[in-house]
Amino acid sequence: MSEKLKNQQEEVRFRVLRAIEDNPDITQRQLAEKLGVSLGQINYQLKALKEKGLLKLGNFIRSDNKLAYVHLLTPKGMTEKIKLTESFIARKRAEFYLIQEELARLESELAHTSATSDMEVTAEPQLREKRSK
Fold first, then answer.
1. Residues 70, 77: contact at Cβ < 8 Å?
2. What does the pLDDT read at residue 30?
3. What is the pLDDT of residue 60?
4. Cβ(18)–Cβ(89) under 8 Å?
5. What is the largest CA-CA distance in the chain?
6. How many CA atoms lie within 13 A of 81 on its CB side?
7. Over the Cα atoms of the chain, what is R_g?
8. Mean pLDDT over residues 55-81, rounded?
9. Dihedrals phi, psi of 16, to nearest 5 degrees
10. This prediction's pTM
11. How far apart are CA 76 and CA 1, in angstroms?
12. Where are the alpha helices (DSSP H) in the chain?
């Protein structure tokens, strides 16, 4: 598995655990919409989290008499969420530094290009005068 794909799956897993911790009775459909991923991806992630013992599923009866499920993080799930949070922060911090470096380069290029353009605009009337003589 490529590093990029691994990071994407880890980020989805992190966001799933975080969303479930915030709202244990969130539906798979709501979770998919919130995270901007497919319902199939959410189903896959939840199943994998349950198999790893990071998540447990409870059920309760809603007031409209439909059986609903509540997703709960296990202690192992909380530990995994902490590890994923640390990894997520490190990855985003590295991305942030790369973006800062790129912005600095672009701003430098823009300043250089602007200065060169200003010199050309200033020099242009003088060139026209010399040509007309």
1. no
2. 93
3. 56
4. no
5. 95
6. 19
7. 27
8. 73
9. -65, -50
10. 0.62
11. 25
12. 3-22, 28-35, 39-51, 75-132
